């Protein structure tokens, strides 16, 4: 059965839509910044069009990127997860963005809650394990909610804590914080959850770890990532 193209009712070419979504989600740009940059390329659109495009196509692109990576991630024999949560203000009220990162820096799951208790940690862990399976080791901070949730799941013996051992997860919050400042924070819990899911998938796709490669390999990996992005949701 042939999959129907999500661009079928749009007059704008898929290449321009992919470019606009990538610029807005990947880089710390506002909607009007993206509008101005596309104007310099001869593409006349409104910033509200960019908003509509990322809301419509961002989750679709993120789902395809995630689907292509899930099977590869499940094959890790020594898979190690790093779990952490970060404070996020929504209309002056504190919420918590939970994040699971693997040992290679890939953001596996993001989940927004109003509380930081056992129930929230349990739901977050079950959501991540349902999609990616069970890890070999789970590194967390000393928040008791993790230990209580893992006892229910039955993998408490896999938990490891340490002062500096969870830096991988701590560093994963930095790209999100940069985007949060540009967006002047969030106004709804639903929009925060949606953007964090899309942003983490796009960040994974373009996370080239340039410090691990020489210049030639980095340029090759960057070209491959851009080529794969331009093929998302293609017929």
Automatic annotation (TrEMBL):
InterPro entries the UniProt entry points to: DDE_dom, IS_Transposase, RNaseH-like_sf, RNaseH_sf, Transpos_IS6
Pfam families: DDE_Tnp_IS240
Source domain of life: Bacteria
UniProt GO MF annotations: DNA binding
DDE domain location: 78-206
Keywords, sorted A to Z: DNA recombination, DNA-binding, Transposition
Segments passing through the bilayer: none
UniProt GO BP: DNA recombination; transposition
Keyword Ribosomal protein recorded: no
Keyword tRNA processing annotated: no
Reported function: Involved in the transposition of the insertion sequence.
PANTHER family linked: BLL1675 PROTEIN
Protein name in the entry: Integrase core domain protein
Organism annotation: Ruegeria atlantica
């Amino acid at each position: 059965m042939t999959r129907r193209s999500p661009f079928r009712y749009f007059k704008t070419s898929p290449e321009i839509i992919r470019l606009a979504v990538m610029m807005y989600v990947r880089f710390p740009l506002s909607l009007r910044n993206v509008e101005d940059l596309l104007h310099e390329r001869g593409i006349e659109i409104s910033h509200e069009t960019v908003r509509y495009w990322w809301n419509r196509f961002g989750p679709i692109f993120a789902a395809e990127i995630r689907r292509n990576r899930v099977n590869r991630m499940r094959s890790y024999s020594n898979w190690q997860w790093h779990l952490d949560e970060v404070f996020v203000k929504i209309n002056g009220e504190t919420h918590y963005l939970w994040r699971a990162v693997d040992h290679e820096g890939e953001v596996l799951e993001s989940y927004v809650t109003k509380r930081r208790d056992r129930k929230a940690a349990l739901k977050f862990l079950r959501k991540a394990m349902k999609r990616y399976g069970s890890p070999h080791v789970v590194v967390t901070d000393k928040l008791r909610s993790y230990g209580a949730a893992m006892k229910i799941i039955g993998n408490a013996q896999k938990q490891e804590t340490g002062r500096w051992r969870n830096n991988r997860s701590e560093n994963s919050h930095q790209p999100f914080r940069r985007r949060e400042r540009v967006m002047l924070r969030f106004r709804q819990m639903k929009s925060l959850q949606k953007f964090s899911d899309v942003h983490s998938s796009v960040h994974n796709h373009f996370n080239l770890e340039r410090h691990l490669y020489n210049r030639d390999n980095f340029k090759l990996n960057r070209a491959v990532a851009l080529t794969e992005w331009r093929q998302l949701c293609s017929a």
